[in-house]
Each structure stands twice: as structure tokens, then as C-alpha cells.
Amino acid sequence: MMKVTLITGASGGIGEAFARQLAKEGHHLLLIARSGQKLKALSEQLSQQHSITAHYLAIDLAQTGSDAIIAREVQQKKLQVDWLINNAGIGSGGDLLEYTMDEYRHMMHLNMNAIVALTYQFLPEMRARKSGTIINVGSMAGFNAIPYMNIYAATKGFVMYFTRALWEENRLYNIHTMLLCPGATETGFFDAAKLSDRKRTYSSKKLETPEQVVAAAMKGVKKKSMMTISGFQNKVMKILVGWIPLKPGLKMWGNMMRKNLNLEIK
């Protein structure tokens, strides 16, 4: 059995940065995303550069049953998922009614259901051998309700609570579970969420790079942290936001977002 690190959303952004860093550290990989062409190119490149084996599978994690297909692939290739990095996700921003219910269903399935399903698939084997690492990629948006980023923030809140409980449920099995919380990052997130023209609305600071986020994650893994927030400003922001009472905070966020998004209340 070959031990592998399974990374979802591996064709770009934070997922690709994880793949590059872990290949450099000698991890064999199983890369998951929708774009088979990008995954094939990345797998071949990493295999040649670092003398590791990089498998890939092009699949849409928002589709029901995708976790079972991935599990069959792992079994057929005689792989053992040692690290599971649940990174794939998509966002939204703007008034609740700007998006269709189908778009919200897709986002909720990808951001929540897929993480639970893949964890459920590979956790039994981790427990049986009493080793493993699970990294769930949340977001700074998951710490609070955010007007005009309503559903996305709620899905990332789910990831936060799920991961915290998972940490306690599995620490006695010697399984390290960690929540990774990036802030606004220079990835394809804003384009996929149809927010290219609103990027600066959601972050007034310089965006982090995926490599900076992954570097913070790797430090967290070494420290066996339950949660890693990438970026000093994000850490400070979490503390400051925690001091603001709920209603005034929501009104402040709402007013700021309405102004930045040029939203008119009719």
C-alpha cells in the first residue's frame, strides 16, 4: 500500500500550493479537482521534479456519490490516505437574491457535504491504524455572520464547528485534525464566485498568496494546532471582531458592504 496525501481543489490556488509543498517534502499525492487537464500537467510535473508518485482524478465533488468514486479509486490503486486535505470550496457575495437556489445548493454541497463525506470515507482506516492528518480549509468568514456573504460564511462556520468536534473525537486515535482559516487570498476564488469586480470589497489589505497560507498551515501541523489562522492581520482581526456586540457588528458590516457594493434599498 502506498501512503498518499489526498488534496481536493488541487488544480489551483491553495490546493495547488499544498501539492507543490508536500511533493517537495516527499509526499505521494492523489489530486482531486474538476479539471483533468490541469491535474494531469501538475501530477506529471511534480512526479518528475520530486521523484514522487502523483495520482489524479477529475471529478466534481458537488455531485452526490463522488466520495464513493474516490474511495474506489483509492482501493483500486492500492493507496492509503495518510493525509486528507479538504480544500475544495466556492463562495458568493452580494445580496441573497443575486444568486439562484441551484447555485446555493451547489455551494452548500461542495463546502459542507463533500468534506463530511470524504472524512467519513477515510476516517475508519485512519482510526484502525491510529494515525492520520486531516486538514479542513475554512475561512475567516466562518467566525461571524457576514451580511452580503451570507450563505458562504454560514458554510464556513459549519466547517469550523465540524472540525473542532472532529479534533476531540479523534485525538485519542492519534489523528491530527486541523482547521485552516485563510483570509482573502490571491486565488481564483473571486472569479469563481463572480466577484472579480468586487474583490477589494471583501479585503482592504493586500491579499495573501496561496504559498503564504500553506506555509502557515505547515507550521500549524508541526505544532499539532487545532486551528491555524494565516496572516498576522487576520489574527488581529479575529480578536477585534470578537469584542464587537452582535447587533452593532452586523449593522456596521451591513452598512459598509452596502456602500462598497453600491446596493440600493428599494
User: How would you characterize the largest beta sheet?
Assistant: 7 strands, parallel
SS elements, strand count? 7
- Report the helical percentage: 40-55%
| Global morphology | globular
Question: Secondary structure elements and their pairing?
Answer:
Layout: E1 2-8, H1 13-24, E2 29-33, H2 36-50, E3 54-58, H3 66-76, E4 79-86, H4 101-129, E5 132-137, H5 150-170, E6 175-181, H6 189-192, H7 210-223, E7 227-229, H8 232-242, H9 246-260
Helix pairs in contact: 1-2, 1-7, 3-4, 4-5
Walk me through this protein's architecture.
The chain is of the alpha/beta class and 266 residues long. It contains nine helices and seven strands, in the order βαβαβαβαβαβααβαα. The protein has helices spanning 13-24, 36-50, 66-76, 101-129, 150-170, 189-192, 210-223, 232-242, 246-260, and strands spanning 2-8, 29-33, 54-58, 79-86, 132-137, 175-181, 227-229. The longest helix is centred in the middle third of the chain and has 29 residues, at 101-129. The protein starts with a strand and ends in a 6-residue tail after the last helix.
